[in-house]
UniProtKB/TrEMBL annotation:
Record's protein name: 2-keto-4-pentenoate hydratase/2-oxohepta-3-ene-1,7-dioic acid hydratase (Catechol pathway)
Keywords in alphabetical order: Metal-binding
Residue stretches making up the Fumarylacetoacetase-like C-terminal domain: 57-252
Pfam families, alphabetized: FAA_hydrolase, Rv2993c-like_N
Protein's organism: Agrococcus carbonis
GO biological process: carboxylic acid metabolic process
Length: 257
């Protein structure tokens, strides 16, 4: 089941993607369960939004592919390396990634995103996946020059628009075959699979929840494969997870206030 969030006329709702239509839902499927309304809307009549706005936080895993760690000259970590992105960095499909004037080297990072479906504290590897509502597509946009310069990554990772998510959440993913393909203006830049994760999802979730509680609607980014690189105004970035969806975002320069 692929669940998405959409805008139609003057309202925002949730729906299940069914071919070229949405089955409209009543309620918030991630936080409180749902029922169907009985209405179907053509996909062409709605605007897809970020399928989730994190209730409190986005937690991300760094250097979770060995080849990506190597391409940036970093050692492979011996335990998950986690950092936070603010929920204000989240945008949806079609929304613009805005390049801030504070950085001259902004990079794309296509990733698998886990959407949390229940309050999760001190999970174990054995029960961790039970806390996941599903997976969606993410782009962990990064100001690479700031990341190199500043030991704390909050600013490099946290600018507004630096966490595109969508277009839908797949509730029954194939955990061993989640493939991330990133394209810039149609050219493939990244192509990685979840089988290459250094730390798998149960390990990451148990590690994170040993120190902080994850809430329904929180998002966990699972790291990016090799091939990251810069983006410039006028380009379009696509991140695809086959079976989940393709997330497209144009890139624009920050306009003066």
């Amino acid at each position: 089941m692929r669940v998405t969030r959409f805008a139609h006329a003057d309202r925002i709702g949730y729906g299940i993607v069914d071919d070229d239509a949405l089955v409209e839902l009543v309620g918030d499927p991630i936080v409180a369960g749902f029922d169907t309304s009985g209405h179907r809307l053509p996909l062409s009549d709605v605007r897809l939004l970020a399928p989730v706005i994190p209730r409190s936080k986005v937690v991300a895993v760094g250097r979770n592919y060995a080849k990506h760690a190597a391409e940036l000259g970093n050692d492979v970590p011996t335990e998950p390396l986690v950092f936070l992105k603010p929920n204000t960095s989240v945008i949806g499909p079609g929304d613009a990634i805005v390049l801030p004037p504070e950085s001259e080297d902004v990079h794309f990072e296509g990733e698998v995103a886990l959407v949390i479906g229940r309050v999760a504290r001190r999970l174990t590897p054995e029960n961790a996946l039970g806390a996941v509502f599903g997976v969606t597509v993410a782009n962990d946009v990064t100001a690479r020059d700031l990341q190199r310069r500043e030991p704390q990554w909050a600013r490099a990772k946290g600018f507004d628009t630096f966490c595109p998510l969508g277009p839908a959440v797949e509730t029954e993913p194939d955990w061993d075959a989640l493939r991330v393909i990133t394209r810039v203006d149609g050219e493939v830049k990244q192509d990685g699979v979840s089988a290459d994760w250094i730390f798998d999802a149960p390990t990451v979730l148990s590690w994170i929840t040993a120190s902080m509680t994850l809430l329904p609607g929180d998002v966990v980014l699972m790291g990016t494969p090799e091939g990251v690189g810069p983006i410039t105004a006028g380009q379009t970035v696509e991140v695809e997870i086959p079976g989940v969806g393709t997330l497209r975002n144009p890139v624009v320069a920050q306009q003066a206030d």
